[in-house]
Design a protein that fits this description.
mainly beta, single chain, CarboxyPept-like_regulatory, Carboxypeptidase family protein, 5 strands, Immunoglobulin-like, 1 helix, two-stranded antiparallel ribbon
């Protein structure tokens, strides 16, 4: 099987019923990603839906700051950022109250 950075594998249900076993040789490239996630609560300690969370990357070598982006919390106050892991970096989060 050839190795691809991006590929997909699809198996239809009818084919699954006709054979008792499947063996696949899948090669995945190791990724170096990190996830930063959490939950935002309001002053009543209830999850805060619709809050904006900003993430800024700070290079520890020279304090260079780079805005990476924003996300909104879901109905449970949950947010998630996924990014490539880099050495010598720290991250700053800022949370803004929902507009509604």
């Amino acid at each position: 099987m050839n190795c691809f950075k991006k590929s997909s594998l699809r198996i239809n249900g009818a084919k699954l019923q006709s054979h008792p076993e499947y063996h696949f040789d899948i090669h995945l490239e190791k990724q170096k990603f990190q996830i930063i996630n959490g939950t935002v609560y309001n002053e009543s300690q209830k999850p805060c839906a619709g809050a904006a969370v900003r993430i800024t990357q700070i290079d520890c070598r020279d304090n260079t700051r780079s805005l990476l982006g924003y996300t909104l919390t879901d109905e449970n106050g949950y947010y998630l950022f996924s990014m490539k892991a880099k050495t010598y970096m720290k991250y700053e989060l800022a949370v803004y109250a929902p507009l509604l």
